[in-house]
Design goal:
heterodimer; A: mainly beta; Lipocalin; 8-stranded antiparallel sheet; 2 helices; 8 strands; B: alpha/beta; disordered N terminus
Chain lengths: 130, 427
């Protein structure tokens, strides 16, 4: 098992509260007001994954994706609802992580957890550009 | 997990390979974060960590808000070798010189002989040097250096070491409270795998007008502070005379010092290069500068003055060399991945290069009647690291350095024998 890598793979595991997931599901990508370039801090609180990294992420039409579209190293799928409820899954190979949380106009936060539960932690986001 | 050539891992891997290369993190039982597994690392299940700080949205010094990560870097203004040959910083002709130029070097040296502090590369292992300086000051035996030189992480330590022990707390904080999120963001913009906009903010916070004023005051006293970068266009190392720049005392000087410090630790490929505005042949253009460690793991003098055939004597009373790395060969299982092999390769090469450089410094010191002192990370240090710039790892290394500095013999008086051979028998 390569827990360290899982941290990298699961970086956007904006795992979190069920209600946030539900809200995000209901809200079809309506989070256009959150569109833009974001910097997301992924911090490991539990488990032996790497301590933390910062990632560049782009939200477009309420959908979360790579800041660099040519980056196909892992799959990100997720969306931001109109109220900011955020749900994202990240998959790479056989590993995945999930998370939820909430964005505001300029920032956001939530929790993430690896699919197998080896690691979990928090994420924080800040808007970096349009 | 199989390596599939993912860019995300490649980005971290390259960065880490470079960091490892300069830090020696792969040695001993320290894990290779981001590259290898952690099964062997003795880590607590619950990470102790500080809450992530709220980050400013504002522009950091010398950075631009990314319009889009899809945008590649803009094209460069072309210039020729002839332009480069006469290029200079506007209104600061004495800001820098080629590190291989004896004439310029001799002109920039302190007017009087004194002890020199020479700080090496090492990435996060700069915590060792920071700790050693702190402990050394506590012991009350740390001299005032007439010259301080810094390469890569040594360049970040150098200004604080230059200013003396009253800046030791800042130095300690710089190496024990930061983490990877304060330094880089995964996702470059076409010229590196990582973006260092967080580092720009960090440098802006640490390199203040007050710091520059203090450096200028010491420069006026005849002391000198040199930081190395590599001019990638010219393929030559450059020495930045930080005191001379600071003496100018304006915003242009502050901006330049910040840019130089960022360029000085910009590991090419992993971090974006630094661009320095210059003028030459009536034209303005930008030079591309990267980590000075490309040329030298630490800087004492132009190579021509250090080679065995050199006859010149350097105006120093003592060389104090702090190598922010382990120098011994250590076993570490290397994964069958490109990055793991590359990282291990580079870190091994750097150890050997540094050992040889230390040996050459020793020979130079003996030839010139200069006292020789060298310190490096003890082979027994084996704190685990959870990724690059793990604060817990850096704190542990700082403490080790501090204890060494405060101890009775922080330095060796001659290069160590790493040959792993039976002791030589006196003939």
């Amino acid at each position: 098992m390569t827990v360290a890598r899982l941290a990298l793979v699961g970086f956007l595991a904006l795992a979190a509260a069920p209600e946030a997931q539900a809200a995000a599901k209901k809200a079809s990508p309506g989070g256009g007001s959150f569109d833009g370039l974001w910097s997301v801090l992924i911090i490991t609180e539990k488990g032996t994954c790497d301590r933390g990294y910062r990632y560049a992420v782009r939200i477009k039409g309420g959908r979360v994706g790579h800041a660099d579209p040519s980056n196909s190293s892992f799959r990100i799928s997720g969306n931001v609802g109109g109220g900011g409820a955020t749900r994202v899954s990240v998959t790479r190979g056989e590993q995945s992580a999930n998370g939820t949380g909430r964005l505001s106009a300029s920032g956001g936060s939530g929790r993430w957890q690896s699919a197998k539960g080896e690691c979990s932690g928090i994420w924080q986001a800040e808007r970096r550009g349009s | 997990m199989r390596v599939t050539g993912s860019e995300i891992r490649f980005a971290i891997g390259i960065a880490f390979a470079a960091l490892v290369a300069s830090s020696g993190l792969t040695s001993g039982s320290a894990a290779q974060p981001g590259i290898t597994t952690y099964e062997t690392a003795a880590l607590s299940a619950q990470a102790k960590k500080k809450p992530a700080k709220k980050r400013s949205k504002g522009k950091a010094a010398g950075t631009e808000q990314p319009a889009s990560a899809q945008d590649g870097p803009p094209p460069r203004t072309p210039f020729s070798a002839a332009d480069q040959a006469v290029a200079a910083i506007a209104n600061m002709p004495d800001a820098r010189f080629w590190a291989d130029s004896e004439t310029d070097y001799l002109r920039a040296l302190p007017p009087k002989p004194g002890p020199w502090l020479i700080l090496s590369t090492g990435g996060e292992d700069g915590a060792f040097g920071a700790g050693l300086l702190g402990g050394w000051a506590k012991a009350g035996t740390r001299p005032e250096f007439s010259l301080v030189t810094g390469v890569s992480t040594g360049a970040l330590i150098a200004p604080f070491a230059f200013l003396g022990s009253r800046f030791d707390d800042q130095l300690r904080d710089a190496y024990t409270t930061i983490s990877a999120i304060d330094i880089f963001e995964v996702g470059g913009k076409g010229e590196s795998f990582l973006d260092t906009w967080p580092l720009h903010g960090l440098i802006e916070k640490r390199v203040t007008p007050e710091l520059l004023k203090a450096i200028a005051a010491e420069h006026a006293r005849g002391r000198r502070l040199f930081i190395l970068t590599t001019n990638l266009d010219a393929g030559r190392p450059v020495v930045w005379d930080i005191g001379a720049i600071a003496t100018r005392g304006d915003k242009a000087a502050l901006d330049l010092v910040r840019k130089v410090m960022i360029a000085a630790i910009s590991i090419p490929g992993a971090f974006p290069p630094g661009f320095i505005e210059v003028e030459g042949n009536g034209r303005k253009f930008q030079e591309m500068h990267v980590d000075g460690g490309l040329a030298d793991q630490f800087y004492i003098a132009p190579d021509s003055m250090l080679v065995s055939t050199a006859t010149s004597k350097l105006p120093a009373t003592d060389f104090y060399i702090i190598a922010n790395m382990k120098l011994n060969s250590d076993f570490a299982m290397t994964e069958r991945t490109t990055l793991s092999i590359l990282g291990r390769t580079v870190s091994t090469a750097i150890k050997f290069v540094t050992r040889n450089a230390i040996d050459r410094a020793y020979a130079t010191a003996k030839r010139s009647g200069i006292g020789f002192y060298v310190a490096y990370i003890d082979p027994s240090f084996s704190a685990p690291a959870r990724g690059p710039f793990d604060p817990d790892y850096m704190k542990a290394l700082y403490e080790v350095g501090f204890a060494k500095g405060a101890g009775p013999a922080p330095f060796l008086r001659e290069p160590a024998d790493f040959s792993n051979q039976p002791k030589k028998v006196a003939r």
